[in-house]
Fold tRNA (uracil-O(2)-)-methyltransferase.
Amino acid sequence: MVQPEPISSITPPAPKSRLIPTRLTDHTTIAPDPTLPRLSSITQDWFPIVSSPANFSLSHFHQACIDMTSHPEHLSTTILRADLIHDIALGESGQDDNELAGFQCHRKIRRRLLPKRKFDWEMTQDCRVYSRPRSQQPVDDELAEHLRSSETDEEGAVILRPDFESLPEVANSKLPYYHPQVVALAFCYIPSTPVATGLEDDEAEGGAEFSSSSATVRIDIIPLPNTDPSQSNKASERIYRSCLRLLGFLHTVGSGMVKGYDKKVFHDLLARKENVQDLYRCLKGKYETDLNDPAHAAHITFVRWMAQEWKEETDPQKHLFEDVAIAAWLIVVWRDMYADSDGKPPGGFVDVGCGNGLLVHLLSSEGYPGYGLDLRARKSWAHYTPQPDLRTQSLDPPALLTADDPPFPINSFLIANHADELTPWIPLFASRTPGAKFLNIPCCHHTLSGRFTALHYTIPQHVLDFDLGPSSDSPSDSNLMTPFFAPAPILSTGRAHAFQLYLAHLTILCGFVPEREALRIPSTKNFGFLGRRRVEGLSDEEVRTNVDGLLKEYGSGWTARIPEGKAGLRKQNGGVHA
């Protein structure tokens, strides 16, 4: 009989690294802790605000700070993004820029911060990455020698400074709300401090031994001059909260690097984030106009109309944010796809399963011809101005795909946003519509003839052997564009991923390269599949054979629904429905 392992011998789990902040000072009292040297261009001192133990290295610290610099929107919901102006790497040796005495500058970044809110303004900021050997600090000879031989010798700093001269006139030389009200802000990395172990004299003949504590990360600031004394306490609390949030993010990212965090989902692979965000803001601003303004009577109101006139039972703001974002993404992608036709699909767009019709309305209002269809009319359809082309129609995929005429207009672009059981049929529709392309955003898991229930799915190797690599004109790093359906050392599991592989398999059989994008929309079902490129090496005849085989095997499992309302009555009476 196997004896259970004694409790005392079981190794306890490693303690989880967590932020343990220590408030050091407010911004009016210099702390006794050693601070950074004064900047050569500023006569004010640094004030340490908050610190915490850290379990990561200097290189992780620097990388975490660079991540924060690249993506400030992760720190504040009031920041849209940062546009890079320049990024100058100075090499491993760095250079002494005489700005921070004793430190070497390794990298100079200049960025432009863009606000998300209209009443804020953009701001230019300089970011510099520094380090210095800690053994150069005034310590006794024995400790200095230990520091020189230690891997924790270097101290680091990343300094952020707003460029006040570049602020717009509307700012009146004031910093925007989303930025801490400081002249400069520094992220400091202080390596572990060796401490003598306190051996007896006869035991210390070979020299003192040292043990190390954990490293420390700290945030220092240089406050704005001439701060109103009556507001000092309030300002101190706000600055502390801002610094605490920054420190927490830095600690989370640095600790994640130690644990080997590997990013799983990458955005903006098929369309540049900047282009989509700028257009999204433009569309959002356009549809925020007041209905009482005659000049904008043709447009819906972004907030007021949706809140007061929305006729559906679903959340109006969710639908509006989502559909405006999808419209912006589509328009940006179309500009490249259809450059020869003014960025518009030559055959128009077709929203299959358009639901409330809002996406059709938005695209139509922006000058993109097309129509939407659904099984039943929604209450909101009649209230759009101008009136978009929305049709009540039931689709019978097997009948459409075996007819002499193509299912949809030639050179059209099919949109399937949560089209339910029609989702897997979209690639087949596109394959039988000359010149068609599509965006498929799946939600519920359906096969061609029923529910998709598998937890695993494998695409046959002979299908993966086709040329399915990324497009040469992709806006993203080609290393990030490895097809999501390619075999990986660590396979993703779960029904959602299996269903995506199933859709990818169908898409390839229908002659399209499935390009996946994690769309920036307020939905957990945010993966879109773009079918715009044909599979090289797969002839039209082979595609037709593949689709015929799918229809023969699964077509009998489809039951066409009867559309609701007058269109359904016409069909039941033998008439042609819209």
